[in-house]
Design a protein that fits this description.
- The chain is α+β, with helices and mostly antiparallel strands.
- The protein is 51% helix and 9% strand.
- The protein has a domain at 2-63 and 139-189: Helicase, Ruva Protein, domain 3, CATH 1.10.8.
- The chain contains 16 helices and 7 strands.
- It has a 5-stranded antiparallel β-sheet. A two-stranded antiparallel sheet has the order 1-2.
- α11 crosses α12.
- The two termini are 34 Å apart.
- Residues 1-29 form the signal peptide.
């Protein structure tokens, strides 16, 4: 972010964003020079958002189409790992130890985020740990290359990624940063919490009050932004995340939720042979799911805070990994 700040210091908030690219216009033609799709996109940005078309075309002369990105997103889906294999990928001694260190280093900020947003410190730490191993793996692609490659050369999801490209350019203008410099994943997810540009603009916060939102290498802003995200997606302070269930009878599978959404209540599930280990209201909607654990099938009820975690990634195994890592962090920190 140092280069970003240096650039911002040289440029006015609005004119500077576009003025930066005068030099780019003299550069060699890039992979998208002369692309009708890019010309149409630039026209939309000019018409709808006030960008200067000629200068924005200068940006795209610097953009590179990355075949490795298309390979990564297009390869056949790998075999879905069962929980007993998925869990050890994220719940490791190394990740727990690094998480305890991260928590200790940023204890005051985490406590402030928990106070302000109602999201426990351990959940915030766990998200950053699962997403990027506390900043170790944030991605090495230029975000603009990733979003342009997928927005203009990956038809199955081109509309989604062009929307994210639009959000990214607006983000860069608002934050006064050079859009050619920021790095992220092959899909354009950014920083310690791996926010997509639309999530950045909607939920990221300037948690240290320095006038910029920097989720790339400012843990304070990353912590506050994760807490903000969960609060906005329905996290309820003080409530549990999941409840273990015992099942009996021949109608158990009828209770399994077809997706992430809670479609049955605790009472309805009880009639199908599900019994929660915790006292839950009969009228409480829950997500009922089964995981293949080391010792056989595990049955769980996901509550409202579980659903909030799935807003980050629509996977029950992802949400369980975040939840169980957060529990391990609390245990390990207490043992220090």
């Amino acid at each position: 972010m140092q280069a970003m700040r240096g650039w911002a210091a040289r440029c006015a908030p609005w004119v500077g964003f576009l003025g930066l690219f005068g030099a780019a216009q003299g550069a060699c033609a890039g992979d998208y020079d002369g692309s009708p799709q890019v010309a149409e996109f630039v026209g939309e940005m000019t018409r709808d958002y006030g960008f200067a078309g000629e200068q924005l075309m200068g940006v795209f002369r610097e953009v590179q189409r990355k075949q490795s990105i298309l390979d990564a997103i297009s390869r056949p889906a790998e075999r879905v790992k069962p929980w007993k294999d998925y869990r050890p990928m994220f719940l490791t001694d190394a990740r727990v130890a690094r998480g305890v260190d991260f928590w200790r280093q940023h204890e005051a900020t985490l406590a402030r985020a928990e106070q302000e947003y109602g999201v426990p410190a351990q959940v915030i730490v766990s998200i950053i740990g699962v997403e990027t191993f506390f900043g170790r793996n944030t991605g090495n692609y230029r975000v603009i290359d990733a979003l342009s490659t997928l927005g203009f050369d990956y038809p199955p999801r081109a509309e989604f990624f062009r929307k994210e490209l639009r959000e990214y350019l607006l983000l860069a203008r608002e934050e006064q940063v050079d859009p050619l410099t920021l790095k992220g994943s092959y899909a354009g997810a950014m920083g310690l919490p791996q926010f997509m540009p639309s999530s950045f603009r909607a939920y990221a916060v300037d948690f240290d009050g320095d006038g910029h939102i920097n989720i790339w290498n400012n843990p304070d802003d990353a912590i506050g932004s994760v807490a903000s995200y969960f609060k906005r997606h329905g996290w309820v302070a003080g409530e549990q995340v999941v409840s273990r269930a015992t099942v009996r009878g021949e109608r158990v599978d009828e209770g399994l939720s077809p997706g992430i959404d809670a479609v049955k209540t605790v009472g309805e599930l009880r009639a199908l042979g599900w019994s929660s280990h915790d006292a839950l209201r009969d009228d409480l909607p829950v997500t009922a799911f089964r995981l293949e654990g080391d010792n056989g099938p595990e049955y769980w009820l996901g509550l409202k805070n579980f659903y909030a975690i799935t807003r980050y990634n629509r996977s029950v195994m992802y949400a369980m990994a975040v939840h169980q890592l957060s529990d391990l962090l609390v245990q390990a920190r207490g043992a220090k």
